[in-house]
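[recover] target loaded
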């Protein structure tokens, strides 16, 4: 995690770039395609192509967040749990992304989020691709279409239908050449 968190990294990457958020690309797709030199698309690749070959499957997660009356719950930002008996996949203790050393203990409370894997259904936020024969074949068809695009850069788990850890993604973006 970069010092200052992901927001600081993103702010630096977008410095001097016109950026719109809370915008539905698909509501004004033709407008965006006409005014943009390049579009960076991070949404679902199957949705970009209006599900031409069918819908891909995804996994999602559900978060339970709580404030705890302790300065340090787990001593780390993220701990993953792989035991069958534990119902969540990880616990995130948010303060450890921004606070270190004594600063952690100077703040008497902490906020944690437990992350639960959940079966995805339409209308839910997709988080991860499902790598099986059906989805991999379908994703390859969408990728073949994406490879022909000259004005669109497809990036991230949903647009590339590929699981990424954060560190390799950040490295990939920092080394990306946009023509």
């Amino acid at each position: 995690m970069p010092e200052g968190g992901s927001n600081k990294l993103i702010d630096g990457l977008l410095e001097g770039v016109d950026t719109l958020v809370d915008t539905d690309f698909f509501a004004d797709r033709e407008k965006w395609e006409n005014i943009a030199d390049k579009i960076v698309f991070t949404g679902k690749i199957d949705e970009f192509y209006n599900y031409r070959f069918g819908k891909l499957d995804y996994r999602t997660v559900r978060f339970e967040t709580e404030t705890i009356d302790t300065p340090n719950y787990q001593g780390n930002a993220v701990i993953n749990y792989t035991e069958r008996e534990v119902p969540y996949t990880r616990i995130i203790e948010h303060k450890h992304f921004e606070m270190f050393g004594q600063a952690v203990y100077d703040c008497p409370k902490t906020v944690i989020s437990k992350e639960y894997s959940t079966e995805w259904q339409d209308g839910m936020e997709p988080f991860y691709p499902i790598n099986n024969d059906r989805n991999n074949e379908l994703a390859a068809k969408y990728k073949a279409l994406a490879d022909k695009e000259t004005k669109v850069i497809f990036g991230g788990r949903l647009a590339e239908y590929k699981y990424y850890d954060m560190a390799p993604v950040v490295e990939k973006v920092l080394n990306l050449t946009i023509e």
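[recover] notes: The first strand starts at residue 39 and ends at 41.
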